[in-house]
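User: What would this chain look like folded?
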Amino acid sequence: MELYFTLDPATDPRVVAFLQEHLDDMYRISPPESVHALDVTQLRQPGIRFWTTWLSENDGDIDLRLVGTCALKELEPGHAELKSMRVSAALRGKGIAQQVLEHAIAQAQASGVQRISLETGTEAFFAPARQFYARNGFALCEPFGSYVLDPNSCFMTCELAPTVQAVPA
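Assistant: Here's the prediction, encoded as structure tokens.
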């Protein structure tokens, strides 16, 4: 099982449908005023980089399957927000989320980000996500950026280790 990551303009109908499924879940679980998921138009805004994750179950498989998404939104120099992190429900628990998060962190570090923050829900539906982020070094924090305290929001942040730049010999 090999994953491919693509910096994506969010125009492919499969991607649009995947993101709509994400939004539908968020509005099903949380009150509308507590939904902070981005739609495709918002994901195309300056300062946001959006990736799709594609699965090839066979080497050389041309027909890749969309299995995940993630985005980084620049908040300020050195600080980004993780947005639209989602893995296909049918494939959760198979290590794909870990690879998606590692990709987002690597992209953040490569662009000089020193801290990634995120907002997720407080409802039971989001408990696995909160546990996943905590296992990956994210800690609870105060609201950041334009967020305000919200009983339906959980804020987390992670300080990133600086990447080591190779020094030319």
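The first strand starts at residue 2 and ends at 7. If you want, I can go into more detail on any region.
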